[in-house]
Amino acid sequence: MPHDTIGWIHTVFAIIALITGSVILYKTKGTSLHKKTGRIYGISMLIVCATAFLIYRVHNTFGILHFFAVISTVTLFLGMLPMYIKGYKNAIAVHLSWMYWSVIGLYCAFAAEIFTRLPLLLNIKNSYGIFYALVGLSTGLVGFIGSRFFKKKKSVWEKKFGT
Prior knowledge:
Blueprint: H1 5-26, H2 32-52, H3 64-84, H4 91-115, H5 118-121, H6 128-161
């Protein structure tokens, strides 16, 4: 559970981003719904990324989860740039690829957040080793599954929008 206002803001906007990101992956691309939902996703993710840098629950330092927040922020910006810069080469394919990874990264973070709660629920003391193992395993598994779907989708996008 979140411990403070920043944690709650982070959690609420992460849930909004999970829902809107899932809708975007599932629904037809380029529609009015896609664009509106995408804007909500983008704004939600900006808030999630910003608040991630303000959360210092583990060791009170910049840690692995903050490193992933940097990756998430970069992925989000790389996904949005093609939509706002005129003349961007293969703009739609680049946008689809980076935004797909933005959502998959969010799924990875969600899985890590869920599985890192296990040591607390099982009342395991000094669980930093287990914490990092669960972050790695859950993120790796979700990322692997996401990469399999991405590989299938990428060939479709390349045929439709170019490489």
